[in-house]
Amino acid sequence: MEEQVLKRIEGMEQQLKYLVDSSRGWQELKHDLTPIIHDAFKTLMKEFGDVEAGFQLEDIFALLKRLLRSIKNLTYLLEQMENIIDLWQTIEPLLHSAVPKGIEFLDEMDQKGVFRMYKAMVEVRGKMARAYTPEDIEVMGDGFVSMLGLIKKISTPQAREMLEKMADLMTTMDLSECKECGPLGLVTGMSSKEARKGLGVMLELTKNLGKLSG
């Protein structure tokens, strides 16, 4: 019986010792934290003092009321942000491949001189704007439309072939070899097959030129 009492007393002593040690630890912690909390409180009061003129406690309640009234708007905003994030996550892999291809395409256009051509066209338009009035450009526009119609007419295969032959003739003919020619020279020249064909072409052109007066 005495042994049991002694064991209980020893257990109580150990518990008391644990409580004393714990209390001593809390006291030491309190002793260490008290200066820190005191300095933090002083700093907090100082900061609140700086904003006291522009801040009132009622402002917090007004902000809370506004937040509560705007819950639906905030929820909608968050949903839209989630949609934007989902969209970005969807297109981001595409951008990884599209952006380099776009840069490569722009570089190719730059090497081909496309941008320089556009720049030159803009400069030409600027020169036209400085040299001519809008009325002049409008009149020239009518003439340009007529020229396009003419270009369309000479774009036929027959017209292109004739123009190419005339251009070849101009490049191969040497006018320095031309000599004076009288009536006898004309008769002699008609012995050439090319001269007779040329005379036939001139006669055909003369007939068609006569239609212009009609």
Summarize the structure in words.
The chain is an all-alpha fold. The chain has a domain at 16-55. 85% of the residues lie in helices and 0% in strands. The chain is built from 8 helices and no strands. It has helices at residues 2-50, 57-69, 71-111, 114-131, 134-153, 157-172, 183-189, 193-210. The longest helix has 49 residues, at 2-50. It is rod-shaped.
In short:
This protein is mainly α and 214 residues long. It is built from eight helices and no strands. The chain has a domain at 16-55.
Distance between the termini: 152 Å
The H/E string reads HHHHHHHH
Q: How many helical stretches? A: 8
- How large a portion of the residues is in β-strands, by DSSP E? under 5%
Low-confidence stretches: none
Shape: rod-shaped
Structural class determined from secondary elements: mainly alpha
Radius of gyration: 51 Å
Percent helix, as a range, is over 70%
Oligomer: single chain
Number of strands: 0
Overall pLDDT level: 78
Per-chain topology:
Layout: H1 2-50, H2 57-69, H3 71-111, H4 114-131, H5 134-153, H6 157-172, H7 183-189, H8 193-210
Keyword list:
85% helix, mainly alpha, rod-shaped, 214 residues, 8 helices
